[in-house]
Design goal:
heterodimer; A: about 290 residues; TIM Barrel; 10 helices; B: about 525 residues; five-stranded mixed β-sheet; globular; binds iron/sulfur cluster
Amino acid sequence: MSNPQATINRILHGTLIDGPGVRIALFFQGCNFKCRYCHNPETQNFCRACGACALTCPTAAVAEHGGVDSYRAERCVHCYQCLKTCPHHSSPHYRTLTIDDLIKEVEASRDFIDGITFSGGECTLQSDFLVSAMKALRKKFGDHFSFYIDSNGLIEKPHLSLLMDHASGFLLDIKAMSRKRHRFLTGKDNKLVLHNAVEMAKRRLLYEVRSVLVCNTTAIPSEIIASATFINHLAKLNAPRTLRWKLIPFRPEGVRDPRAQEEMLISKEVYDNCCRLAKRSYCEQNIITV
Amino acid sequence: MSGHNNNIQQQVKAKIAERGIDYKQKRSDLASIAENSLPAYASVSAKARNYLDQGVICDLFEGAAPYRARYILPDYQKFLRQGCNYLNLPPAHDIHSAINYLQILYHYVPSIIDHPVYLGSIDELLSPWEKSVSRDELKRVLKYFIMHINRTFPSAFVHMNLGPKDSLTSRLWLELEGELELAIPNLSFKYHRGVTPDDLLELALTTAMKASKPYIVDDEKIASMWKELAGEGESKREEEVEYGVASCYNTLRIGGGSHTLVRLNLREAATKSSMKAGDITLFLEEVVPEAVAALAEIINYRASFLVEESGFFANSFLAREGLIDLKKFTSMGGVVGLHECVEILSGGGRMGWQENAKDRLATDYAETIIQTIASKLSLHPGKYCDGSNGKITLHAQSGIDTDLGTTAGVRIQIGKEPTLFAQMNLAARLQKYFTSGVSDIYVFEPGAKDNLQGLASIVKKGIDKGIRILSINNSSSDCVRVTGYLVKKSEVERYWKKESLRDESLRFGAPTLKNANILGRKVRSTKENKEDNE
Ligand code: SF4
Ligand code: SF4
């Protein structure tokens, strides 16, 4: 058997916001969306060894033109200057992870966790690894842990069906209901995303759908109502499993462009209005607000 | 002598003229000045005095001549059952009389802060009558009860207990605390697997994410720890050994309490004896035994003074009427500054972490040191400690406002927290040595409120591992855990503007919030927190 590897930006032991219970979250490097409001732009692309970050790193933890391959963790002081510098929305910090490494990580926290969540970046771009990982973890730990996939939904059919065979659930971002706005926000069409949402619901695999509310784009009544209608439809397919709908106001943290930050921000009042509308249009109990 | 008198007069004058504190606080401070004007520790050894002078041992500025026990946990259940001669009260007969009588008795419970530091297990006290009124009425009376406590005992050390059994009183109390978001009273929830229903625990956690309380207490292990300890001494026990949680996470016997709390500052112990990296053997074999002997000596001096000189127990109607019993008392030896002590001895290792050899060394040192202190302390007979079979009990003290650079109890220094699970693993290793209280704080981001199953899982798995007392907090709450008690961020701002505020704990809480970087506690599971990268 081949020994698949993943490219991981970081691993978080003990998260309560990435699926049910207490979990380990793996954040994969690389994304097929380029969201305007991305909070972790450094996870979008792979390093091109351009050398820019080496010039600003205060401790020479990265060699010039060495990029990610030359990164020496023991020198790093976690100032994150490199992330601000990188012109390619990447980072010298990510690393490869084998299935064995992953098993070790899970082993270290096994007494505390209920499961593992694969997140990103966009983890489904590394579907082969995900499938092998879920198989291996299940083989090792039995049905002790659940596996959740946090995705933007842009997954090709063959990958999706394999993932659905092994995952316990999905956390799905629906960036916008209107195609135009989806393109505006992410650079990609949403047809496949919405199609995949239905596929997941049919298999009763949807745990949570998330909407990020952006000023004048998704924080508007027509978007909320369109989302609610669609999510109601998903919820029926997904039943009896409950489907949570989480409404998140756009947050400026981590977003690169200061002008974009200002333009996207919504007031508390707008957020509350959106939530009120959502609660009127979807089962209130399953709506999660901040 | 006249210089001494002048000095006292000056202190009294300054206190009388002080702004920003109210009349009652002044009166209590004036009493402390009087008490502290007496010569202190006349009969303790020069060695022990030296430790006090150096700050290795600290009596918490409790006053030199104790005339009331520091922690008193009256048997409120007995009080409601039998009434009280001194207060001319018959036994309680319904929910209203029960609450009214408790409110009366609270005013007669002495403590170091002029307010009762233990209010009882409210559900056990009131649930016998909870069915005789409607749900709405019960909620209304409980609300006024909370308001009464909040307004008449303005100190966050005033501590109420709940659980482990299910009751409507518990549920409504938790609901109300979530709605009111008050710093006072402090609140502990006794959790007992198999006894406490899951949805009650989840309700407690919902409240914790709003109001930063209750603390969750492992009822099963703390109860059995006390039963075992107390049982050793009492060949034939007539009464159940029960514990309550008072003040700043002091787990003590109901109907008893603790005469005093004197603490050992481990950071100072390591610093003052010029310990260096690698000196662990010397520290364990020489420094610890000597310091612990001095600690025990001072504790016993204070307990003897209280019992023999002040005549507190002979004089108190609580004792006369059996609401407290000297035989159920203990004394506490506290520790603080383990984090810094271990850092010195391991040459910069970070306890709780497992990243390198030094870290692992620090983690092992932490347990070895506490284990050694516990075993050395048990060699010294505790005077008037019949409640704990003649032993002084170990307590992880939560720190005081003047503790600069010394971390509370056996906690990890704020800002140096390892991963969530590593912190829990360390807490589990250390907490089992503390009979009379220990605590740890875990701050989660607001989104965790929507994952009650996850929060409950943290509690249950932590308890399974060996954690005894833990606090689950929300990084965005107005109520902040300072060390063990709560203050409201909004009131801290007003404190610094020198407004006169009711909450006396702000006098300690506001400076501590600043000095100890309380708001810098690591928030768990925040994606933006890139420091979690490991
Ligand atoms: S965070 Fe980046 S810039 Fe800072 S020390 Fe580490 S590698 Fe260098
Ligand atoms: S991380 Fe970014 S800046 Fe650094 S070498 Fe790679 S692409 Fe260049």
